[in-house]
Design goal:
Chains A, B: Its main location: cytoplasm. The structure is a homodimer. Chain A has about 130 residues and is mainly alpha-helical. Chain A is about 65% helix and about 5% strand. The first copy, chain A, has 6 helices and 2 strands; from the N terminus they run ααββαααα. Chain A has a two-stranded antiparallel ribbon. Chain A starts with a helix and ends in a 5-residue tail after the last helix. In chain A, about 30% of the residues are buried. At the A-B interface, α3, α4, α5 and α6 of A face α3, α4, α5 and α6 of B. Chain A binds a DNA duplex (30 and 30 nucleotides) through α2.
Amino acid sequence: MNIGDAAKASGVSAKMIRYYESIGLIPEAARTDSGYRSYGAREVQILRFVRRARDLGFPVPVIEELLALWGDRDRHSADVKRLALDHVESLERKIAEMQAMADTLRHLAEACCGDARPDCPILEDLGGPTAP
Amino acid sequence: MNIGDAAKASGVSAKMIRYYESIGLIPEAARTDSGYRSYGAREVQILRFVRRARDLGFPVPVIEELLALWGDRDRHSADVKRLALDHVESLERKIAEMQAMADTLRHLAEACCGDARPDCPILEDLGGPTAP
DNA sequence: TCTTGACCTTCCCATGATTGGAAGCCCTAA
DNA sequence: TTAGGGCTTCCAATCATGGGAAGGTCAAGA
């Protein structure tokens, strides 16, 4: 399989496959005589793993750890669970931040009549009724 | 006021003040004879507006629009409200995505006993029980 | 008056993950 | 043989922010 086929089979774009290889997340692909990268089922499976982990929002360095654990027969599931729960925590932190922003804004927007008049509690919150 | 004082007074770092000026979000600051940027209460108020808008997660291009509306006596509050609600929508979209990730991961982690054994539903979800 | 330390200036680089594009080589089908 | 699509590498941009270097400026203290 060439990189394009591996991309289709794994759901990871060819660009990203090359990038993941360049940063060492995945091993260097074998090459044909003419220099084309060559992939088999095994490599596609790894790419799919990476894809799924990215879809779950794991940052690349954590995916590196997950890949290592995946390949370690003597792993402790506790290590995997810790990585997952740490990531959940970081997600929830960001969610809480964004939810606070959204709540504040929704509240301000509710108080804004939203018509042709200039009076606006949103702008008043941001910096006062009129620009200086 | 020099840029450092304006930074302290507004909560925007000196680095960011220069950056906002360079991209045209805020007007170019006046300069002293020796080339130092010079700020007054008016400029600090603008910076505070930008700061508050950033804290609410508005992207810079939207802050540009908000600043323009702030300075427009004939604005329609409807325009401000629309910008705010569009942003709320974009926040809620991202929140929903991240919440879905967190829910999936938390669910998988619950099913993972998290001990010294290698069996792990998290890894199984990502790519199967063992690396290829 | 000179020195010192804190400030300012511009310029470049890095982040993280991803996309886009350009220039040039390779492969296959017509 | 040619046309096209796919492959290669390299470079640039995203978005907002921080870090740092090299060099100029200012104010306080000796």
